[in-house]
Amino acid sequence: MDQQFSRPIHRLGGTADGYMLTRSTRVSNISVRAGTSDVTVKFKDGAGGQTLWEVEADNGAGSHFESFTPPLLFKNGLYVEVVADAPTNTNWSVSVAVLEPLSSGT
What tens digit of pLDDT does each residue of 49-73 get? Predict the structure, then answer.
C-alpha cells in the first residue's frame, strides 16, 4: 500500500542540472515556476537516461503544474535538466511529489 505523497522535493534556480532523487521513484506531481524568463525542464530516468517528461514554463503565465495517474516511474533516479531562456535567470524552481511505500511505523 502507498501513502499519497512523501515530502515535496525542490530544486532551486542557480543550481546545475542533477539528481533530485538517486533511487528508483514514482513521480505523481510536478510544479515548475519560471522566474524572470521561460524555462524548459527535462525529467530523465537517471543521468543520460531517457527523457520521460518535458515541460516548458512561461514566465508570463505563472507556475506550470501537472499530475500523473499512473505516476511516472524513474527506475534509475530522477535527474533534471533545466534550460532558461536568459542565463541570468536564477529564480526558477522545480518541485515534485513522489509516491512512497506506506511505512509500518516500526
Answer: 999 999 999 988 878 899 998 899 9
Give the C-alpha distances (Å, rounded to integers) separating 8 from 29, 92, 94, 100: 10, 16, 10, 12
- If one compares 22 and 4, the residue with the highest pLDDT of the two is 22
Domains of the chain: total: 1
* Domain annotation covers residue 27: yes
State the distance between the two ends of the chain, measured CA to CA, in whole angstroms.
16
Q: CATH number for the domain including 86? A: 2.60.120
Distance CA 90, CA 15 (A): 8
Q: Tell me if 91 is assigned to some domain.
A: yes
Strands 64-74 and 93-101: unpaired
